[in-house]
Design brief:
about 200 residues, alpha/beta, 6-stranded parallel sheet, two-stranded antiparallel sheet, 8 strands, about 20% helix
C-alpha cells in the first residue's frame, strides 16, 4: 500500500466512538493497533474527525420529545438522531490517544454545519456539500482508497459509497472497523457497498 496513488482514510477514531464515549461503538478501541500498523505502511494517510457545534440539528437533545436513535425528516432526507457527541473542542471529539495521528497528512473535519449532519468523508448528508477531500486526493493523484475506522455501517460505509461514486477503487478492511448495527444497518451497508463495487476485505 506504499504506492503513491493509494491513500488510507481513517474514519472518526475519536473518544466519543470508543468505549466510555457518548456514542460508543462496541470494540471501537480494538482496531487502533492494526490501524497504526497500516498507517506506517502507507504513503498517504487522511484522518476524518466528527466536529459538531453544540446544539447540532442531528442531536436528539435539539428536538423536543425525541430520544437518541429516533428518526426525523430533515430538508435533505431521513436523519437518525444521536446522543450529543464529538462536540467541537471537547475531549469526546479528540482522537483516541492510542491513534498515531503523526502519520496523518490531512485531517478532514465534518459535521460542523449546524443544519446538516455529515457521515461521509466526502460530502455532508445533503450529498452535495463537499468536504474538500475529493479535491485533495485528485491533487495528490490518488486513485485507490483503503478505509478503516468507525462505524462500519455509517461513516465508513457512506465514505466508501461516495468514494466509489467518485471513481476511486475502494477497499474497506472490515477487521479494522466496528459497527453500530442499528436495526440491521450493518448488513444493509454491506449489501450497498458490494453493489457499488466496494471491496470488503
Amino acid at each position: 500500500m506504499s504506492a503513491a496513488n493509494h491513500a488510507l482514510i481513517v474514519i472518526d477514531v475519536q473518544n466519543d466512538f470508543c468505549p466510555e464515549g457518548a456514542l460508543a461503538v462496541a470494540g471501537g478501541s480494538e482496531i487502533i493497533a492494526g490501524i497504526n500498523t497500516l498507517m506506517s505502511e502507507t504513503a498517504c494517510t487522511v484522518l476524518t474527525q466528527d466536529w459538531h457545534p453544540s446544539g447540532h440539528s442531528s442531536f436528539a437533545s435539539s428536538h423536543a420529545g425525541k430520544a437518541p436513535f429516533d428518526m426525523v425528516e430533515m430538508p435533505y432526507g431521513p436523519q437518525v438522531l444521536w446522543p450529543d457527541h464529538c462536540v467541537q473542542g471537547s475531549e469526546g471529539a479528540a482522537f483516541h490517544a492510542g491513534l498515531n495521528t503523526d502519520r496523518a497528512q490531512m485531517i478532514v473535519r465534518k459535521g460542523f454545519r449546524p443544519e446538516v449532519d455529515s457521515y461521509s468523508a466526502f460530502f455532508e448528508n445533503d450529498k452535495t456539500t463537499a468536504t474538500g477531500l475529493h479535491g485533495y486526493l485528485q491533487e495528490r493523484g490518488i486513485k485507490a482508497l483503503t478505509m478503516v475506522g468507525l462505524a462500519t455501517d455509517f461513516c465508513v460505509a457512506y465514505s466508501a459509497l461516495d468514494g466509489a461514486r467518485l471513481g476511486y477503487d475502494v477497499t474497506v478492511v472490515e477487521s479494522l472497523c466496528r459497527a453500530i448495527d442499528l436495526d440491521g444497518s450493518l448488513q444493509a451497508a454491506r449489501v450497498q457497498m458490494r453493489e457499488a463495487g466496494v471491496t470488503l476485505a
